[in-house]
Amino acid sequence: MWTALAFAVVGGIHLMPIAPIFVPETLSRLYGIAPTDSTLLVLMRHRAVLLALVGILCLWAVWWPAVRPAALLAAAINTAGFLGFYALYGNPAGALRTIAIADLIALPPLAFAAWMTLLRD
Q1: Phi/psi at 24 (5° precision)
Q2: What is the value of pTM for the model shown?
Q3: For 67-99, b where at least 16 C-beta lie within 10 A, e where not — what string?
Q4: What DSSP string describes 16-28?
Q5: Closest residue by Cα to residue 54 from 95, 1, 18, 4
Q6: pLDDT-based confidence at 37, cuts 50/70/90?
């Protein structure tokens, strides 16, 4: 039960920025950018799709344990990747800090899910 809850929390965090897929104007609120540049708009909406994919995979792992290793890998790469780039660029303030905080919140349940899925027998 606790493992499923951990996957649900990680999945929910990854699904939070799904709005730009449907409403591009939310990019201003989420990331502090205006959706006027079509190249940036495509990239940010694609980012939302990829985050949704990770979130859906984690929610699928709640009910189907066979999916858990793949969900862990996807969520860990995404979370560590963003936090790594965030640190590499000097921990910028603003909307990116909010994303970094959300990813930091995701780390404990992600680590617990990994421990319960991969290391505990």
Answers
A1: -55, -25
A2: 0.88
A3: bbeebbebbbebbeebbeebeeeeeeeeebeeb
A4: GGGHHHH-TTHHH
A5: 18
A6: confident
Secondary structure letter of residue 32 according to DSSP: S
Neighbours of 36 (CB within 10 A): 10
**Side-chain half-sphere of 5: how many Cα atoms within 13 Å?**
4
Report the C-alpha gap between 34 and 29 in whole angstroms: 9
- Closest residue by Cα to residue 72 from 120, 109, 100, 36: 109
Amino acid identity of residue 103, one-letter, is D
Tens digit of each residue's pLDDT (9 = 90 or more) over 66-97: 999 999 999 999 999 999 999 999 999 888 89
pLDDT of residue 53 exceeding 70: yes
Write the DSSP symbol of residue 92. Answer: -
The count of residues in the chain is 121
119 band by pLDDT with thresholds 50, 70 and 90: confident
Please calculate the CA angle 14-23-48 and round it to the nearest 5 degrees: 30
